[in-house]
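Protein modeling request. Please complete all fields; requests missing the sequence field cannot be processed.
Requester role: graduate student
Desired output: 3D structure, token encoding
Chains: 1
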Amino acid sequence: MTEHSSLSFDEFLRQCNDAKSAEDGDQALLRAAAAQEWQRLKDRLRRITEGKRLGADVFEWSPYPAPYPDFIKLKDVALCFESGTVVGDAAQKYRLVFSRRPLRSGEMWANAEPIPAERWWLALEAENGVLHWLVRENRLRMKTEEFADHAAMRFVEYHQRYAAAVKARYPWASI
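Delivered output (175 residues):
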């Protein structure tokens, strides 16, 4: 902005409103871009896992209705895509959750989870026109394509830790 003494109040107020409008517009654009990038992330994870197996276990995209409709299931674990409800001008919250698979209607687990769920809170950052996903817990910062690959690999590792924990807890069970 220019020097205040040379402006009338109306001119000063117009400049302040223009600056606020530009800032609000940038935030609206980032929110719209975030929603598109979130969908791109889910689509990319679906594409890279579709039709693939880990041993005899098949990667399945949301094979049944569940509380969180977007998830990749691999035997008894899932990678769930969670986004919260936006109130007002707040930024959308995104989270990836590696956990036991969501239950079907009328289903319940007979035992406690063998390992705790792993939650990644995500933020989206723009730098020079390029969007990057930030994972606060891991200090990761990656573009959507490489982040999808990374998340898919961590999902397989989570599955392996889960299977090992089940086998250790129930050595007689065939896993």
